[in-house]
Write a structure and sequence with these properties.
The complex is a heterodimer of chains A (227) and B (249). Chain A is 88% helix and 0% strand. Chain A has helices spanning 3-23, 25-46, 50-72, 74-83, 85-91, 96-125, 130-157, 164-192, 197-226. The longest helix of chain A is centred in the middle third of the chain and has 30 residues, at 96-125. In chain B, 71% of the residues lie in helices and 0% in strands. Chain B has helices spanning 11-42, 58-85, 88-119, 128-149, 153-166, 170-176, 202-234, 239-247. The chains are: A mainly alpha (227), B mainly alpha (249). The A-B interface holds A 153, 157-158, 161-163, 167, 170-171, 173-175, 177-178, 181, 194, 198, 217, 220-221, 224-225, 227 and B 131, 135, 138-139, 141-142, 145-146, 149-150, 155, 158-159, 162-163, 165-167, 170, 173, 186-187.
Chain lengths: 227, 249
């Protein structure tokens, strides 16, 4: 399989999934609006004291991103599983991990990237200073792909099971915790004026590790779930 | 001498072995627990550094935490062996280990929070070791939940085995999270400090080791008992099970 062939496969799957997503834009938008609504709920529940809100902003935005990411996982494999396409994808001679990478990329572009793009607006709701907003966007940019990649493992393991969304949250949220700690931590550090480099290095390490290993785990999980 | 590594890998051949060894493990566990508790209360000094009598909870807390990490690793190893060799008994062993592991994790967290209340003033603190021990509890529960949610036993076994393997990253985090290069720096403040096992008094260390061994023997007994039931449940249609219970009538 030469590299041009691999890229062609990636591109083919990516185009297919993006096209399918565009035809069902409501799926995309519901995730985005869930994110916005959850972030807006906290000030309503906690009270509008700006100092408190500024202090809790990184955590709230990150937890909402986690929850939105997790809820969107249902659309990663379920439709393809339901109509039999997933089985065919597993049977192709292309490496399943490669197909998984392109599916997860499409999924992230459609559900994760919108969260990153709208985060500055939500940060303004919490009165975050401008440089903290940049750090928030960058941390979400590095973190949401990891959430999609790790979530893909959970989605593949729970294909077609009853108990659906709640079961996947039980499996996937503990694995999300390191990303949450460093993602929210980097914004906190930025606000306090501390050095953010270490956090960013760790977040990028998570991204690289997730990119390297989670497609393999997801492919194994898909094979286990389909057979 | 050729070792047959797969001699006990069938449920039928392992069942009698488990059956015979459970009373020994349970008996040893009870004896060691009694000795360990006696040592914890009577042969160890009354104070540890600046903590008074309540430091004695260390004899329950630390061995439970060690067992929780060890049992997770053992569960992951059996899960891996099952995935590689496709032996269903390995999967059954991993499934049998999960509840005992969860119990020890809960015990570590529970006794730890009592110890925290008395010596640090707080029931809970989000330092790395505590947080990841809690994550470990969620991993055990996630394993059991996934296994219970899938009806087909083969798919359930393999899916939860994969989950167990993915979660192994947690253990080094718990273990190494207290090795801070500079405990005074802002990034590294944690209530659990670096392991002081080397510098601890020998009577305390002996007591902890006896309790650890007691817990380990108990784990063997509890896990094998659970495994015994799992084997009977899974293999109930087979001939050796009917013979076993036919003879008992």
């Amino acid at each position: 399989m030469n590299s041009q062939g691999m890229l062609a496969v990636l591109q083919c799957m990516l185009t297919r999934d993006l096209l399918l997503a565009i035809r069902r834009l409501s799926d995309v938008l519901t995730t985005l609006f869930f994110f916005v609504i959850v972030v807006s709920l906290f000030p309503l529940g906690i009270g509008a004291d700006m100092d408190t809100l500024r202090a809790i902003a990184p955590g709230v935005v990150w937890v909402a991103a986690l929850l939105a990411s997790m809820l969107a996982l249902g659309r990663l494999f379920n439709e393809d599983f339901a109509d039999g396409t997933l089985e065919q994808l597993i049977l192709t001679p292309q490496p399943l991990a490669l197909l998984v990478v392109s599916k997860v990329t499409a999924h992230w572009l459609v559900t994760g990237l919108p969260l990153v793009l709208i985060a500055p607006l939500l940060g303004l709701q919490y009165d975050l200073p401008a440089d903290a907003l940049w750090i928030l966007v960058l941390s979400l940019l590095m973190g949401t792909p990891v959430l999609s990649l790790i979530g893909a493992i959970g989605a593949a393991l729970t294909l077609g099971l009853r108990g659906g969304g709640v079961l996947i949250s039980l499996l996937v949220l503990p694995l999300y915790v390191p990303v949450l700690i460093f993602g929210a931590g980097v914004v906190d550090a930025g606000i306090s004026g501390l050095d953010t480099q270490a956090h960013f290095w760790l977040l990028s390490a998570f991204l690289v590790l997730a990119l390297a290993f989670s497609p393999l785990a997801t492919a194994a999980a898909l094979r286990i779930s389909i057979e | 001498m050729v070792i047959n590594w797969f001699k006990y890998s069938s449920p039928a051949s392992f069942y009698p072995l488990a059956d015979r060894s459970i009373p020994w493990f349970m008996g040893t566990a009870i004896v060691l627990t009694v000795i360990g508790l006696y040592c914890s209360f009577f042969t160890t000094p009354d104070v540890l550094q600046d903590q008074k009598e309540y430091y004695r909870i260390i004899f329950i807390h630390v061995p439970a935490a060690w067992m929780s990490m060890w049992l997770y690793v053992v569960m992951a190893v059996w899960a891996g062996i099952g995935l590689v060799f496709n032996t269903r008994l390995s999967f059954m062993m991993a499934t049998a280990l999960a509840p005992t592991g969860a119990v020890f994790t809960f015990l570590a967290l529970w006794t730890g929070s009592f110890w925290g209340r008395t010596s640090w003033g707080t029931w809970w603190d989000w330092d790395p070791r505590l947080t990841f021990e809690l994550i470990l509890l969620f991993l055990f529960i996630g394993y059991m939940a996934l296994h219970a949610a899938i009806d087909d036993s083969r798919r359930a076994d393999r899916a939860s085995a994969l989950l167990a393997l993915v979660g192994v990253f947690c253990i080094p985090i718990i273990y190494y999270s207290v090795q801070c290069p500079d405990p005074n720096s802002l990034n590294c403040r944690a209530l659990h400090q670096t392991s002081s096992l080397r510098s601890i008094e020998s009577s305390i260390l002996t007591s902890m080791m006896i309790m650890t061994l007691a817990y380990w023997m108990y784990s063997f007994a509890a896990v094998l008992m659970r495994l015994r039931s799992l084997i009977l449940e899974r293999e109930k249609g087979s001939e050796w099970v009917s013979e076993l219970f036919g003879r008992m009538k």
